[in-house]
Design brief:
- This protein is α/β, with parallel strands linked by helices.
- The chain has helices spanning 16-38, 46-58, 69-82, 102-114, 125-142, 157-171, 198-206, 224-234, 258-268, 334-337, 339-343, 362-397, 421-434, 461-473; strands at residues 92-93, 150-154, 189-193, 213-215, 241-246, 271-276, 300-304, 316-320, 401-403, 411-416, 438-444, 447-453.
- The strands form 2 sheets. It has a 7-stranded mixed beta sheet with strand order 2-8-7-6-5-3-4, sandwiched between helices.
- The radius of gyration is 24 Å and the shape is globular.
- It starts with 15 loop residues before the first helix and ends with a helix.
């Protein structure tokens, strides 16, 4: 076989790994030099400086004649690393943006090289079997008493929540069948808290549903009495209802009172969805899993393993207690899941997602689960939540800081004592522009707070002390 021109060798086949190996050395070297160039959690200088650096390094991005594969790879990977927000840095703590495990990242490389497309069995024979086994094992954590729990692999909480609303809408059809082209005379009404993820509202809009009824959450969580009153008032005045709860809000990591809300949903005949994209990983932890009591009573549950699961993006799931819940997604395209092929035993993958082409994101998840086990992942969860408690302790002991509340997950809200909202926003932006720290912001009934979302299980107390010193150094006296 003739040798392909430089840069055009394929990653698959028996010769693929040999072609890939020298590029790995180039990538790893460029990741190292880029991180050394950045020398912190974020590049300094702000958006204009970063944009200029990327433009200068890449220009011209589409030359008449290429620079050669190693030069292009080294240049762009170095540039991306030098201009990255690095979630592995303990001072990069603004978002639910985890540092992925090296193990999972290596598995993701294999997924990219093999490139299975998870929309028909003949494109992904082993990957489809692995996805079925792994998704069901994870669903069994959510629904331990269910006979056939299942889960769909998604891109994250947004897609999972969208699917949950879609399944609720279709289940509300007059005969409960997704195959019928009609809809109930009165559409599904979503009820959520003000603490709900924004994707609940966007999904309702995308699906043509009424604007969700948004209940106040002055303490950061849904109040059962408020929910009961709302559902009682809706009785007889509206169509089917979907109550959504949150197990780990993006602002503070708060968890709604799941058992009480499940009781209320049952009492009023409402469907129940729990967005546990953040807090769902507590299922791995023997220490903290009791905080999710009531999770198994939901009709659908959103999970994310690219948060407290340390997976490269994307690694989301929507868990359900049984395959019948997923029937509304049934779809047939002759070139992907012809009826006679399905009857002959070829698995139908098209009916397990709204997407057609999708990556085998299950591989990195499966490798991590098998390598670390539930207890290994639970230990990482415990260490991360313990770091949040340590940060809260440091804040409470500091004379110039105030703590919003003790953290339940790994999010800590705090602010310099007496700082107004404008000052807090300026402190955060200054730290970003200087590349010293990446902190988030959260608005509560008591005003604006700085938000530290800890997702690095290897963060040390000294890292947290330094983080507070960085904030203090930018606080006006």
């Amino acid at each position: 076989m003739p040798v392909p021109p430089a840069g055009t060798a394929l990653a698959g086949g028996t010769n693929g790994p040999r072609a890939l190996r020298p590029f790995l050395d180039t990538v790893l070297d460029a990741l190292t030099t880029g991180a050394e160039h950045r020398a912190g959690p974020l590049p300094s200088g702000g958006p204009a400086t970063v944009t200029r650096a990327v433009r200068d390094a890449c220009h011209p991005l589409l030359p008449d004649h290429g620079t050669g594969p190693h030069t292009a790879l080294r240049t762009l990977v170095h540039t991306l690393a030098a201009g990255a927000a690095d979630p592995a840095d303990p001072h990069c703590a603004a978002h639910l943006h985890c540092p992925p495990l090296a193990l999972a990242t290596a598995a993701d490389l294999a997924a990219g090289a093999l490139n299975p497309s998870m929309d028909s069995w003949d494109q992904a024979p082993a990957a489809s079997a692995l996805e079925a086994l792994t998704s069901r094992a994870l669903a069994a954590l959510v629904y331990p008493r269910a006979t056939e729990p299942d889960a769909l692999i998604t891109t994250g909480g947004t897609e999972s929540n969208q699917l949950a609303l879609l399944l609720a809408r279709e289940a509300a059809a007059p005969d409960g069948s997704a195959t019928e082209p009609h809809r109930p005379a009165r559409p599904l009404q979503v009820v959520c808290g003000a603490n709900a993820h924004h994707s609940i509202h966007r999904s309702a809009w995308l699906l043509g549903l009424p604007e969700p009824l948004t209940l106040p959450t002055p303490d950061g969580i849904l109040t059962p009495d408020t929910v009961h009153t709302c559902l009682a008032n809706l009785a007889g005045r509206t169509g089917p209802v979907l109550l959504t709860a949150t197990a780990g809000t993006t602002d503070s990591g708060a968890i709604d009172p799941l058992p009480a809300l499940a009781d209320i949903a049952d009492h009023h005949g409402a469907r129940f969805h729990i967005d546990a994209a953040y807090g769902g990983a507590l299922l791995f932890s023997d220490t903290h899993r009791s905080a999710l009591h009531g999770l198994a009573r939901a009709h659908t549950v959103s999970l994310d393993l690219h948060k407290l699961g340390w997976q490269p993006v994307a690694a989301g799931l929507l868990a359900v207690p049984g395959p019948a819940t997923l029937a509304p997604l049934a779809h047939q395209a002759d070139y992907l899941n012809a009826d006679d092929d399905t009857e002959a035993g070829l698995p139908d993958l098209l009916s397990r997602s709204l997407r057609t082409t999708r990556r085998p994101d299950i591989l990195k998840i499966a490798v991590t689960l098998k390598a670390l086990g539930r207890h290994g992942l639970g230990e990482l969860v415990d260490r991360t939540l313990a770091a949040a408690q340590t940060l809260a302790d440091l804040i409470e002991a500091h004379p110039r800081y105030e703590l919003h509340s003790r953290p339940l997950l790994s999010t800590v809200l705090f602010r310099p004592t007496g700082a107004d909202d404008a000052t807090l926003a300026t402190i955060r932006r200054t730290l970003l522009t200087d590349g010293q720290a990446v902190l988030g912001r959260a608005t509560t009934p008591t005003g604006l707070w700085l938000k530290a979302t800890l997702l690095n299980p290897h963060t040390q107390p000294g890292d947290l002390t330094t983080l507070l010193k960085l904030v203090e150094g930018h606080t006006p006296r």
